[in-house]
């Protein structure tokens, strides 16, 4: 037992540091790395994909289900912008396969 | 849209790190340093940590994602964001409610920053380690010296105005990218100093001993709930304002939600590690608030090797924590008033800071006034602001729409459907519960009456102001997105 602390206290201290500083550090490193990748992509092209495959699929599904929604035009613009960008650019931020891109249609 | 001529292109954060540090700088304040460690130690230590952590993930991180996303989606301050959502008319007054709560909060927070500034200056003068120093008399002397407090309050608001006038990138971002790392570094060095003192383990045990039975006490969960919601500044308009300056391809949920909620709480954990080993090593009773920072710790510094230097680290770090919060709280008003009037940023900064300075004079003059306002706005005013922002997202914009249009766009992590009911039902219910709980606990007291007046009058004032200004008699037009999606 370090410093005369019980195993339970040491375990809790380790868990707390991991759960807080570990998660915060992971999030910080991950988001800064992603930022670096985005900057790198935008050095080669002026636009970048804005949705992951799962997020774009859900957006498309919502557009289909809510054709009269006040925000559907905005949603459609965002959907189509991502589709166009995926078709016209070589480098993508999210993990898009060529097959997935080929299957996409404008809404 | 406000009928105001376009001034210049809207500012943006210069770097991702700048945005992240702005979020942390805004949310880490006095509460992380002088409240969190004591609340943690007194509510079951490790058991409290588990309750707190679960509520951070369940409420604070999702709520912050929503608030930042609304700011990013509308690219406007609190009033403009509400107008975009509810349409022109009296209901935009909910944005005025958030603005008024922020101004009120800053009016009594500025004197708190003034205290930390005063102690930081005296730490640099090695006052606390001088022979014959009396901690309690020193603190009382400051609190009772109204002229000095008003002077310090003036210096604080003047400094904030000077920085905010420089703008988002040249002012706010330049400060926070240095201030937040400096605060963390100061606490880390203080932790190392504390842990190497004989008897430090008692402090660690006080904070991290797991008393499992506390997880069955409602008081533990209410304390954790209050800490998770108030410490992260959820729904105060700060995250919305900071999010409104995000760049086109920036992520919201990972940085604005997870990193902010967990990162700012990590500073509280670090403060516990920095403070309690030192306090227990010297055998001083742990405390919270001004008693901890300005009496207990000040008594401890002369007793430990290099105490004068540790005092500098602590009080300069403490000042940075409160000052960066003050900057971003004030930015809420500056952003909004600048958008809603024909004033330029410098003029707006002077008007907003001048108004806060004027309203802050009673709190600077008397600690009793400060305590009263802190209680009233802490328990009812801030939850009212949170209810306004999260309520509008949950019930007017609709969480699913916001998630699809703003949260998951350019996101670093995918946010699924689980998020929607949290925003629509859970957070608003929790805020109503908090306001009702504190009203019940303080039934009939002057604080409770003040709180009820805030809850009743602020929305009426906000509604009346916007009804008159927008000239529509409070009827929303079709520009809003009313209708919800769920």
Automatic annotation (TrEMBL), chain A:
<keyword id="KW-0472">Membrane</keyword>
<dbReference type="InterPro" id="IPR058339">
    <property type="entry name" value="DUF8026"/>
</dbReference>
<keyword id="KW-0812">Transmembrane</keyword>
<feature type="transmembrane region" description="Helical">
    <location>
        <begin position="12"/>
        <end position="29"/>
    </location>
</feature>
<protein>
    <submittedName>
        <fullName>Uncharacterized protein</fullName>
    </submittedName>
</protein>
<dbReference type="Pfam" id="PF26069">
    <property type="entry name" value="DUF8026"/>
</dbReference>
<keyword id="KW-1133">Transmembrane helix</keyword>
TrEMBL record, chain B:
<dbReference type="Pfam" id="PF00209">
    <property type="entry name" value="SNF"/>
</dbReference>
<feature type="transmembrane region" description="Helical">
    <location>
        <begin position="418"/>
        <end position="440"/>
    </location>
</feature>
<comment type="similarity">
    <text>Belongs to the sodium:neurotransmitter symporter (SNF) (TC 2.A.22) family.</text>
</comment>
<dbReference type="InterPro" id="IPR047218">
    <property type="entry name" value="YocR/YhdH-like"/>
</dbReference>
<keyword id="KW-0769">Symport</keyword>
<feature type="transmembrane region" description="Helical">
    <location>
        <begin position="349"/>
        <end position="365"/>
    </location>
</feature>
<keyword id="KW-0812">Transmembrane</keyword>
<keyword id="KW-1133">Transmembrane helix</keyword>
<dbReference type="GO" id="GO:0016020">
    <property type="term" value="C:membrane"/>
</dbReference>
<feature type="transmembrane region" description="Helical">
    <location>
        <begin position="175"/>
        <end position="192"/>
    </location>
</feature>
<dbReference type="InterPro" id="IPR037272">
    <property type="entry name" value="SNS_sf"/>
</dbReference>
<feature type="transmembrane region" description="Helical">
    <location>
        <begin position="221"/>
        <end position="246"/>
    </location>
</feature>
<feature type="transmembrane region" description="Helical">
    <location>
        <begin position="112"/>
        <end position="133"/>
    </location>
</feature>
<feature type="transmembrane region" description="Helical">
    <location>
        <begin position="85"/>
        <end position="105"/>
    </location>
</feature>
<feature type="transmembrane region" description="Helical">
    <location>
        <begin position="145"/>
        <end position="168"/>
    </location>
</feature>
<keyword id="KW-0813">Transport</keyword>
<feature type="transmembrane region" description="Helical">
    <location>
        <begin position="377"/>
        <end position="397"/>
    </location>
</feature>
<feature type="transmembrane region" description="Helical">
    <location>
        <begin position="258"/>
        <end position="284"/>
    </location>
</feature>
<protein>
    <recommendedName>
        <fullName>Transporter</fullName>
    </recommendedName>
</protein>
<keyword id="KW-0472">Membrane</keyword>
<feature type="transmembrane region" description="Helical">
    <location>
        <begin position="13"/>
        <end position="34"/>
    </location>
</feature>
<dbReference type="GO" id="GO:0015293">
    <property type="term" value="F:symporter activity"/>
</dbReference>
